[in-house]
């Protein structure tokens, strides 16, 4: 009978430590910044933004 509460505690700990870990959030942030850089590069290559605008936005991304 004591097995089920212990199992529940272990499963809850595993769930919250995996889905809410600080490293995972940081990795997600880095991926988002990488995607933003790719979009910015593409927009510059396609001529949607000027070089001046590209450099300004790229420096803003690197500051974050």
Highlighted features:
single chain, 64 residues, mainly alpha, rod-shaped
Description:
- By secondary structure, this protein is an all-alpha fold.
- Helices cover 84% and strands 0% of the residues.
- Helix 2 (22-45) packs antiparallel against helix 3 (51-63).
- The termini are far apart.
- The relative contact order is 0.08.
What is the topological layout?
Layout: H1 3-19, H2 22-45, H3 51-63
Q: Which class best fits the helix and strand makeup?
A: mainly alpha
The radius of gyration over CA amounts to 21 Å
Strand content: under 5%
Topology order in helix (H) and strand (E) letters: HHH
- The CA-CA distance between the termini, in Å, is 51 Å
Q: How many strands in all?
A: 0
Shape: rod-shaped
Helix content: over 70%
Query: Biggest sheet, open or closed, and with what strands and sense?
Result: none
Number of helices: 3
Average pLDDT rating: 79
The low-pLDDT segments are none
Short overview:
By secondary structure, the chain is an all-alpha fold.
């Amino acid at each position: 009978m004591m097995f089920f509460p212990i199992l529940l505690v272990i499963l809850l700990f595993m769930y919250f430590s995996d889905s809410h870990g600080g490293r995972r959030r940081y990795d997600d942030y880095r991926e988002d910044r990488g995607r933003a850089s790719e979009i910015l590069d593409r927009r510059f290559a396609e001529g949607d933004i000027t070089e001046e605008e590209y450099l300004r936005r790229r420096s803003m991304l690197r500051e974050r």
